Every structure is written in structure tokens, then in C-alpha cells.
Amino acid sequence: MSDGSVQQRQSQPAVPLLEEQRVGEILAAVPERRHWRYRPRRVGMVWRSRTFRIVAVFTVLALCGLAILALVRDQTGTEGFLVGLGLAVLPVPLLMAAFRWLDRVEPAPWRNLLFAFAWGAFAAALVAILANSFATHWIATATADPSHADTLGATVIAPVVEESAKAAAVLLIFLFRKREFNGIVDGVVVAGFTASGFAFTENILYLGNAFGEDQQIGTSGVVSVTAATFFVRAVMSPFAHPLFTVLTGIGFGLAAASARRRRIRRIALPLSGLVLAMGMHALWNGSATVGPYGFYAVYGVFMVPAFGLVTWLAIWSRQRELRTLSAELPAYAAAGWLTPAEPLALSSMRARGMARDAARRRHSLAARGNWTSPYGPAHAPPSPTSPAYGPGPGHGPGPGHPQAHTSVHGAGYAPGHGQGYAPGFGTGPGYGYGYGTGRAPASGPSAQAGARTKAQAKAHGKAAARTVAEYESFATSLASLRRQARRGTAGADFAERELELLHHLWQRRDVAAPALTYAAQATGRLRLPRPAPGPYAHSFPPPHTPYGGPGYNPYLAPHQPPRRSQ
Q1: Rounded distance, CA 167 to CA 305, Å?
Q2: Theoretical Cys-Cys bridge with 343: which of 36, 329, 448, 509, CB 3.0 to 4.6 Å?
């Protein structure tokens, strides 16, 4: 080697080499994944990207929507399409409201429900129209009997194709949204939204064709074909398609509640529900071929009792979810995460609604007149000089602090007691919800300029009610997660999910806990012990509880002493 090359190498700056003894120190200094500047390149793994999946799903649904729009408009005409669309949309809000009411205990995200509705209205309807038309045409060509082909297509081909296409939406949510699909109610709601979308598109087609037939024969009014079709499909049987697909949803719900090790059961239950849905659909479609009274016989003997049975099962499942709250949450109350009254209030739909209304009313009044916290001095927001004030994270006990709470499963977790109160009522970059701490001047023009308006007070009330609703949702998810852990269906990330839910609860407890305590007392689910009467109990009026004193509840009206007899 030449001397020049040696001198050139020595002139270059030396690059330090990593020592094996410092591996632990180096790895400890690596930033979290969300702060990575250089990310590994994934070759051939584009489908794992969340953005790619969302764009792909929306693209498929949009293309299906355009295709179904063109097909329906081609069969019904523009005028028939508009009439069918206007009449078909009428039962949709009723169906969606019914299924959403059933899902009040642990509401599913709207993105899942809207996906299910869009899948039923666009993708499933497109598959059904194309497959049914092809199958009917093939049978008519093979048998040379068009009437027989229509009957066979309606009673055999259509139930299999349509129920399979609708079940695909339930299957996708079951596979890719496991955390949000864990019981019978979830299966019923997702299946109901999917079938409602499918029935919406199908009603447009039937009502549009009926309107075109009326235009040809010249009938109108209550004796028209359009009126008769609307009465049968939208008044007598708007629940027909949802009832069929709900059977499939029940099968998926039972599979979701089963342990992961029972693979045969998790496969057999959805398939059994799908077969039942196809059978009932075939019975419903074939009722018109039995005779003039076949439709009414099937409607009264099978459809109405089946609808009542499925409705009872769905409501019973919802009540079972409420009983799960009262059974699972007391463990967290004993550990200090919840107050003793909260499991009682959270297991009652009436108490939940009362807590949201009370929080909305109290915080709205506090924003309009009382600039301190409506929960008393114990929950008053910190002063601007307090270290907890501002949008940053709250200052609370660390993991080694004696007041640090611990999960019921032993996982150490130290929530900050300072909730990071931000000016106004909203969410800061750090911890969640804060109260406005600005005080209006006592007098002068600046008092009028700085006074809160009625709209701002209303916004404060809505924010408080939303906070209580979020608290109820997270508490329900926590109880459901604990139930899954006992059944062996929670998954390996149970501890992380539990801590995340407890963190969300802790952020909102200052707003939600007093409201839920009030609701538990107001509904009679929590009865406060009464002290034993003394020897002079009837001689003196009961003492008045001061504002914010021991045992004070800001939602209850102050106790009024009885009037003395004249």
C-alpha cells in the first residue's frame, strides 16, 4: 500500500464504532416509534397500510355505488328512480334509530355502521342484481320455462346470493374490528345496518318499477301499484331483510363471545346463522307462490313471531351487558379507580341519561353565573399560578408515590391527579378537560364585555355532557374487557388495553363522577345510610349541609328544614 493512501486515510475523520458493551445504553436512547425519522421500508406489504386499506374500501364502495346507480336508473328510468328514492328513504331513519337504540350500552363507532350500511346498499345490492339476473337467465335458457326460472330464482338463488353478500360486511367487521365486536348486540346492530342499506336499494328498484307500471296503465292514488308496493315493503315488512341478516349477526356475536381456543364453534356458529337466514329468506320469498293467502299465513305464523323472538333476544343481551357492568366494575371501585356509586349508575340506562342531563345543566349554569366549579371546592379548578394550570400534562403522583393507584390485575399505573386544566372547556395538547378560570370583573364596561354569552354557556354544558358520555363508554368497554379476560377471549394485549381505558376514565372523572353519583342517588340505586335519631331528634330541625361540605352533592337541592307549626 502506498504512503499516499495511508496519509489520505489518516486525514479523514475517524468514525467511532459501537461497542457491544453499550448495546443496552444505545437501545434505551432510541426514540419511540412515532418519533422515528427513518422508517423501515416494507416491500410487498402495501396492503398492511391503514391508509391504503381505507382508500381501497372507499374506492370499491364508490365504484359499486356508481354501478348500482346506473343499473337501477336503467331499469326504472329517471322519473321512476327519483320517486323510488324518495319513498325508499322513509323507513331508513326508523330502522337506523331502532338499531342505534339497541346499541346504547356500548355504542359501536359510526364508521363501522356507515360502512355496513354502504356495503349493503352498494356492494351487496350490486352482487345480488348481477348474480340473480345471471342465474335466472341461465335457468330460463336451460329449462325453456321463464316462469319456472323466476320462481326458482326468487326462492333458491336470491336467498343464497343476497344473504351471503350481506354476511360479508359482518364478516369483515368481525375480522378487522375485533375490539368493537364482542357480543350478540354488536352482531345484531351491524347486521341490521347492512340489511337496512340493502333493503333501501332494493326498495328503490321495486318502487321505481311500480311507478313505471302505473304510468303505463294510468293508475294513481291509493289504488296504484306504487302505493300497494310501498305498503307491503315499507309499512308491513320493513324489518324483513334486517330480520334475515340479524340471524347471521347473532351467529357472529356468539362466536365473538366464545373463547379463541374453540375454533370449531367460532366457525360453526356464523355458518349456522347464515343457513337460518337463507332458510327464512327462502320461506318469505316463496310465500307468494303458495296461494292467495300464503303471504299472510307466512307473515302471521312465522315472520311476526320470529321478529318478536329476535327482538326479545336483543333486548335480553343488552340487559346482560348492563349486568356485566354491575358485576365487573366494583373491582375497580375497590381499587380506587371508581367511586362506589358509579357501578350502580353505569348499570342503569336511566341513570346514565340523568347523569348526562345533570352535567349539562350544572356546567351550563356554572358558566353563566358561577365561575367556580359546580362540584364544590374539592373540584375547583386550580389558580393560574398553580403548576397544574395550562395545557400541559397534569402533575400527579409518580409510580413510586404512596397515592399511586394500581390496576386490579397488579399492573402499576400512576395517573396524574392534576388534570391539566386548560382555559375554557376543551381538550388541550396534554390532559383533557378543563374549566374556564377567568373571573369577570365586578363592575364596569369590561364586565359586560367579558361576560359569557348564552351560547358559550350552552357549549360548556354540551361539553360536560359529552365528557360524561365518553366516561360511560370507556367504563362499559372496561367491564367488557374484564369479562373477555375471564372467558379467555381478551387477547395478549389485555394489560395495555386496561391501562389505556383506566387512563381515559381518570382524565374525565372530575366531571363524570359527581354526575353519576347524583344519578345513582336520584334513581334510588344508592341509598345513603341515615344516622340513628337521638333523644332530641324531633326538637330541632336537621342541620343544613354547607356548600362543599362533607357529604355534599352539588346536584341535590339543599335540604330545607320543616316549617314549625303555628
Answers
A1: 23
A2: 329
Quote the Cα angle for 448-451-457, to 5°: 150
pTM to 2 decimal places: 0.69
The answer on pLDDT for 449 being more than 50 is no
Stretch among 313-317, 318-322, 393-397, 539-543 having the lowest mean pLDDT: 393-397
Question: What region, left, alpha or beta, does residue 363 occupy, with left being phi > 0 and alpha being psi -120 to 50 degrees?
Answer: alpha
Sorting pLDDT into bands at 50, 70 and 90, what band is 36?
low
Q: Which three cell numbers stand for residue 199?
A: 333493503
Cα–Cα separations (whole angstroms), residue 226 to 90, 212, 292, 330: 14, 9, 20, 57
**What would the grid cell of residue 415 be?**
395517573
Handedness of CA 111, 117, 121, 127 (dihedral sign): positive
Cα–Cα nearest to 512, from 539, 480, 544, 474: 474
Give 211's contacts (C-beta < 8 A, 6+ positions apart): 76, 79, 80, 83, 84, 225, 226
The tens digit of pLDDT for each residue in 380-401 reads: 443 433 333 333 333 333 333 3
413: left (phi over 0), alpha (psi -120 to 50) or beta: beta
Contact 307, 247 (CB under 8 A): no
Cα 139 to Cα 96, 135, 419: the distances in Å are 37, 6, 69
Q: What is the pLDDT of residue 123?
A: 93
Say how far apart CA 183 and CA 190 lie, in whole Å.
11
- Residue 401 to residue 492: CA distance in whole angstroms: 28
Give the 3-state secondary structure of residue 249.
helix
Q: Is residue 45 over pLDDT 60?
A: no
DSSP class per residue in 38-74: S----TT-GGG-HHHHHHHHHHHHHHHHHHHHHHHHH
Is the confidence at residue 31, as pLDDT, over 80?
no
| C-alpha span between 560 and 118 (Å, rounded) | 57
Average pLDDT over residues 265-285: 92
Q: Tell me how far apart the alpha carbons of residues 465 and 372 are, in angstroms, rounded to a whole number.
A: 18
Neighbours of 280 (CB within 10 A): 20
Which whole-number Å values give the CA distances from 265 to 251, 255, 272, 350, 485, in the listed order?
10, 7, 10, 36, 19
Environment class of 162 (CB within 10 Å of its CB; exposed 0-12, middle 13-18, buried 19+): buried
